[in-house]
Amino acid sequence: RPAMAAWIAAGGPRHIWQDIYGDEFPAEKIAQDARAQGLTDALFFIQGARGGPVQYPTKHPLLKMDPYMKGRDYTEEMLAACDQVDIRVWLAFTPPPSNETFPGTDIQGLNDPRMIKLYCDMVDEIAGLYGHHKSLAGFLPHEVNCAEGPDKHADDRAEFSKYCEAEFGEPFEGEVWPPVENAG
Predict the structure, then answer these.
(1) Which pTM was predicted?
(2) Of 127, 128, 136, which is closest to residue 78 (Cα–Cα)?
(3) Greatest CA separation found in the chain?
């Protein structure tokens, strides 16, 4: 089917929703309005802030539940509402800003295997909690994972040099690291 998607974040306009609907996160109203506008897909941020608290009741030791939920489960509410209106929901992860660590840890960036494991643990936990929802379409890392914190390969020179020696018969001995690209 043709797809048209929009971002939905529970951490968004809480005060506006509260003033208009009397609810900080009116999931059913959001889903109904989205479908009435022709949306088929929603990108729902599973974290309330960059690298921040999650929008579901977690048991993971490194994750914290968003205090704004006040005992609610925004992920369950969003998925249940989207089940009713035939909207696919893609859950997005947002990392901390590139110059910060994941809250309460020294984990920084996707180059750290612990961050990848944390994301995998989140996927497993979410699948166990919400896998029964027909609206749950999948998971997406937010684009800032790559765009904001690219790997500059500062720690890969020795490995690259060994690769060059194995592939081309001589190690990399260039003065500039990483090597300057030359597509020509």
Answers:
(1) 0.77
(2) 136
(3) 70
